[in-house]
Design a protein that fits this description.
Elements: E1 26-27, E2 33-34, H1 38-49, H2 53-74, E3 76-79, E4 83-90, E5 93-96, E6 103-106, E7 109-116, H3 118-123
Antiparallel strand pairs: 1-2, 3-4, 4-7, 5-6
Helix pairs in contact: 1-2
Length: 124
């Protein structure tokens, strides 16, 4: 008589860890959305306008791109009541390494400054 082989199923895999939920707009004390990063801003644009996620991402990307281009071309970008972004230049200078005390050359650089508008200041 031939012995029958018993086939056992391999041990069951543990359930895959649940993926973190997509970032959603956090709510502040007054029930208004709190924006802390670009993804949250996209979620707010999506929920406010009723658009798709792809369209909201494209909208936010277009706004950021327009601000960047304007600062590069004109040296500033202003949203009345919100504030003004201004391009700045810093000259090359000599600095000191705090660990060794050696003098080092710091290259010239460009940056952006933000000056809040009156409505933004008043809302704080």
């Amino acid at each position: 008589m031939a012995k029958e082989k018993t086939v056992t199923a391999p041990p069951a895999k543990k359930a895959a860890a649940a993926k973190p939920a997509a970032k959603t707009a956090k709510t502040a004390k007054a029930g208004k959305p709190e924006v802390s990063d670009k993804d949250t801003l996209v979620a707010i644009v999506q929920s406010t306008t009723g658009s798709t996620g792809t369209a909201a991402k494209a909208t936010v990307a277009a706004i950021v791109e327009a601000i960047s281009k304007s600062i590069k071309k004109n040296g500033k970008f202003q949203i009345v009541g919100f504030g003004t972004f201004t391009a700045t230049k810093r000259k090359a200078r000599t600095g000191v390494n705090p660990q060794t005390g050696d003098k080092i050359k710091i290259a010239a650089s460009k940056g952006v400054r933000f000056k809040p508008g009156t409505k933004l200041k008043a809302s704080l």
